[in-house]
Amino acid sequence: MGEKGWVQTDFGWTAVDSAGADLLQVFDAETLLTMRVAGVDEAGRGPLAGPVYAAAVVLDPGRPIEGLNDSKMLSERARDELAPLIRERALAWCVASVSVAEIDTLNILNATMLAMRRAVDGLGLLPDLVQVDGNRAPALACRVQTVIGGDAQVQAISAASILAKTARDAELVRLHDIYPMYGFDRHKGYGTPDHLRCLLEHGPCPEHRRSFEPVRQAMGGPARASAGMPGAQAKAAAASYAMDALLPWSDLDEPPVPAPRRRRARPGG
Q: How far are the Cα atoms of 95, 216, 238 from residue 162, in angstroms, in the given order?
């Protein structure tokens, strides 16, 4: 049974049918051998701080990489060992990001779609097919397929998830050197109890996403924020924010179908 996905266009979201991870349901084995298939995944949709990242990877069938899996299922050490292998052996790869300022302007969903487009555009080649983890994908110059759970099923998507995750983690470690009071090196910007406590105590820094509710609350100042979110409540909220950050794209409601546009007839026309 095919999966239902959504591709973002200039006019809204268009429903697409996806065959899932098994491309043999769509293409014969001989055709697959000649196709360039790129895997795409994001990292950093849920955190309260830092850019959102996306990576695109076209693997080389002649240079397999053992141990590829969803980056969330791998240890930090395993990710750090696999990332250079992916960059060395892939036919093409690109990591792209969208800044906090862009996230706050576009919203996190649109910003994630933009990061994915930037990653695919940066490959230096046009894939025959792009497989995107989840049920949302940007419109691209080639065929697009959404794969729910693809980061654990499709090796190219697994590779992309690893590159996106390691690149973003490295960026948050760099931001920790600039803003050490938040502990970015520990929680990587996610809404953990420790991060919320630091956010309430110090207020947001330029790398916090003002479009996210916990950051907006903290902008009122530590005293005001603490009054509105005491210790036990802050911990409960942090657990909720952390859970939301781990939810797949499939947790999102179906996009609203835009109403058809009608042209107003000209007088006498």
A: 10, 31, 25
Rounded Cα distance between 165 and 80, Å, is 10
Q: What b/e string do you get for 222-241 counting C-beta neighbours within 10 Å, with b at 16 or more?
A: eeebbeebeeeebeebbeeb
- CA 103 – CA 167 distance, rounded (Å): 18
The DSSP code sequence of 109-138 is HHHHHHHHHHHHHTTSS--SEEEEESSEEE
Helix (H/G/I), strand (E/B), else coil: 41: strand
Q: Indicate the pTM of the whole model.
A: 0.79
248 Cβ contact list (under 8 Å, min separation 6): 134, 148, 149
Please list the pLDDT of the chain residue by residue as tens digits (269 residues): 455 677 777 667 777 666 555 565 666 667 767 789 999 999 999 999 999 999 999 999 999 999 998 898 999 999 999 999 999 999 999 999 999 999 999 999 999 999 999 999 999 999 999 999 998 999 898 889 898 888 888 999 999 999 999 999 999 999 999 999 999 999 999 999 999 999 999 999 999 999 999 999 988 744 343 444 445 544 544 444 444 443 444 444 444 444 444 444 455 54
Phi, psi of 77 (to 5 degrees): -60, -45
DSSP output for 213-267? HHHHHHTT-HHHHHHHS-HHHHHHHHHHHHHHHH--GGGSPPPPPPPPP-PPPPT
3-state secondary structure of 106: helix
Residue 34 tokens read as 């000649």
Amino acid present at 219: M
Domains of the chain (ranges plus CATH)?
3-173 (3.30.420.10), 179-250 (no CATH)
Contact yes or no for 135/4 (Cβ under 8 A): yes
